[in-house]
What does this fold into?
Amino acid sequence: MYHKYVLVDALQQSYSLDTISSMSDSFHIQGGNLLRGEINVQGSKNAATKLIAATLLTNKKCKLTNIPQLKDVEVMLEILKEMGSIVEYGKTKNTVYITNKDTDIEKLNFSKIKKLRSSIVFTGPLLARFGKVKMPYPGGDKIGKRSLDTHFHAFRDLGCKVIARDDSYTIIAPKEKNNTPKKIILDEFSVTATENAMMYAASLPIKVEISIAAQEPHIQNLAEFLRRMGAKVQMLFGHKIKIEGAKNLKGANIRVVDDYIEAGTFVIAGLVVGGDILIHNFPVNHLDLFLKKLKRAGANIIIEGNKTVRVKTSRRFSYSKIQTMIYPGIPTDLQSPLGVLATQCEGKTLIHDPLYEGRLEYLKELQKMGADITILDPHRAEVRGPSLLKGFEISGKDIRGGMSLIIAGLVAEGDTVLKNSYQVDRGYEKIDERLRVLGAKIRRV
It folds into this structure.
């Protein structure tokens, strides 16, 4: 079956991602090959999309490096260009220069805003730039409802007026200048609400404190960018962020942080499939707990310095509970790959992911492949292993779930077809090509 896709794989390189998506492209995977070799972690999608939005805070040129070539990143840049911003690439597309001098908010493309969840972070910078912003509700992954109430309350805490309608929302900045320090208490540890509040606050020449703030690596990356633009930003103990902004922020350069979610995903792929892989550009300090728990469960993981991790076949493996938490806990974005790992563990594994009620949808696809899983409720499931997975035609509804099903296909007996590969392309750069370097039999059709 594998050789049939060689010609198609060569032909697909001439198509854009939009063209491939419209053709309902899929990944065809033949399981059973061990993974061997070296792979590099790319720049973080979650960091890149927020840094792109943050460039709107200045009309000076900004330089972003280590940009991953992903569909979500591409759409974010297209939204800027259609508003009149200048987007230029360096020698490779991993370096982007952005100048938002003649940006016109009236040209904001609502249809593209609706395509991805990350577009929500345009709200803070556009509000800072223009004093008023109207946005449609964002799209993206199908992993359950994600209310914007935390965002709206944060802007209200800063004196803004929020008008929420069924199909859109409008936020208006206060006209009267007030130098009184402001305090925001977020309703939850929301990453994007934290980022929106940070970017808007960076444009205000007052002191703002954000409590119940998320502090993931990509938020720390954004904080450094805002500092380089001229704002004072402190990441404090107890999930607090203090910001003293400035009226005229300057252009700045920043490197997108390496993607700790991708790094963790590659670790799990190595453990599930087996073999011997070296993962470079690995942000070890961002995954301390993750690595510790896996090693305690029996994983054969060797940390070789601050930027390289080696993963080898593990003989016996048992992981009793997968509990996602706010950073620096186990990220919700790694729950899906860990769920696939649970199918190969000995005994029972309880999965608990309290954030999104649709995050366990991929488990229904694993059941089709032969996994022994009981979904207890929208946030909890029990996996019993080890299971012999068998190839099947399956579909990923979100970025992480789709990538997890690729891993399942790599360990399954026979051939797996993963439909809707567009979702995976949103978060993992050229994943089929990179996995083939490790010996995986995977083709895009």
